[in-house]
Write the structure tokens for this entry.
Amino acid sequence: MKKGGKIIWGNGAKTEAASDTSSTEDEKADGYIKQRFEVEGPATVDGQQFAIVGSHPTLGGWVKGNALRMLPAFNIQENKRVWSVTARVPEGERLEYKYVLVSDNDSAAIWESKFHNRQLTAGSPKVQVDRVESFVW
């Protein structure tokens, strides 16, 4: 559901639309920053989309049903589909996360096959670009 320039998912966690143009000073006023996640991965089928779930409540708190759904884009120069989402997270916090494939009706979620959790310190870099090779049931 979109509300006032923010996308709100099942757990109430908020992600900001990519087109949001608030200033850097506004972003840091509450200690939170915009962290953009981008992922290139295998093709999806109708009714599936990429999502991210992780250690911080803004990233769903490891609950697949609270995963942040990502929006698709197509990189024409490299002929690749890239999925992205921007989340507000505490600056400097160490985040752990994984990508999942979710269905439109939330009936299934498939974890990426990478054994270890991905890790990132929020804000370094501001745009995290990843690649997913495969998913496991």
Remarks:
- Helices lie at 24-28.
- The chain has one domain: 2-136.
